Amino acid sequence: MIKAPEPVQINIVGAADWLDAPLRRFVRDSGVKRAIVLRPDGRVLAQLGFASAAEVMTACTLAAAINATGKELGRQLAGSPFTGLHQGGRVQGVFMGTCPAGGKECLLLAAFDRNSTLGLVRLYFAEFREALGCVIDSDRRGSGARDLESDLNSSLDSLFGPLSRF
Question: Is residue 123 part of a domain?
Answer without folding.
Answer: yes
